[in-house]
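thought: fold this chain, then report.
action: predict
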Amino acid sequence: MTTKLRNLFAIGASAFLLAACQGENAGDSSEGAGDSNDTDTEETADFKLGMVTDEGGVDDRSFNQSGWEGMQAWAEDNDLGEDAVKYYQSNDASQFVSNLNTAIQDQYDIIYGVGYQLAEAIDDVAENNPDQHFGIVDGAVDRDNVVSLNFRDHEAAYLVGVAAAHTTESDQIGFVGGQRGVVIDRFQAGFEAGVASVNPDIDVDVQYAESFADAAIGQQIAAGMFSSGVDVIYHASGAVGNGVFTEATDRMESDPDNQLWVIGVDRDQEELGEWEGGNLTLTSSLKAVGTAIQLASNEAMEEGFQGGENIVYGLAEDGVGITEGNMSEEAWSAVEEARQAILDGDVEIPETPEAE
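observation:
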């Protein structure tokens, strides 16, 4: 990772992470791929970005949406037209390769796959198209025409674990994962370690939806957790988490005296926690997906494509983080202390969960 890229990321990440939601209805089409303008300007002909979503969809209010918002911001910041960026929505894994091939035909300079689920598809397509540049977010593909963008998710997850442990009144906390794998393992491991650093006797109920798209499963899992006494749930599950928020808000509206909390993921999900009596988003772990795409794309335009690199962002690079949200002063103070301890190298955070 070049010094220029590292410095730019540190400057740009915080501002982008706080950006308002812009992408929920952007780029929708009946074919599952993003629309783009027919406007053909000199600028947009110079450099264009394509993006293939994972199964969560571009409006998941989480991971994919962060990537799409980042690409839109990139086009605006570089004074390019709307047709400089386009997304191709994958409703399931069977569409990954076809969407990648369509993006190649549409002649995008860099095609990003958002989510580790696309790693195998990008590896195959990149091998067959050595002159096409690709990016993979949350995965690693060792090819000269692919740049890999990854994050130390376990660092941010540790911090929200600290927040959850300082907030729970029942000493029962939940973790809802999307699909098991190396990325979500990092979320689970970091979260459990953060909770245990405050109180090892707190019980963490871990359940997986085996999906990143099915909000109904998320609501069902959350209902079971809340009924069993859990009062804080952290989800790392893409659009599945929308169901977790729905269950929590429904319960708070029916019984306002029973305080429940949800912790968001990848972007600030405070808007999902709004209910008639307040807001139940305790905090959100942040991942600067959009900013990473912007910076890798800018470097490709200015200095050449950095194929074969695996760039990893953590707390030190402002690549991951946490919102203050609705934490108590005590919880926020504890999070700040934990963050500094991580930066100082005083805390070693596991990347894989203990055997269950």
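thought: worth noting. Confidence is low (pLDDT under 50) at residues 1-45.
final: tokens above.
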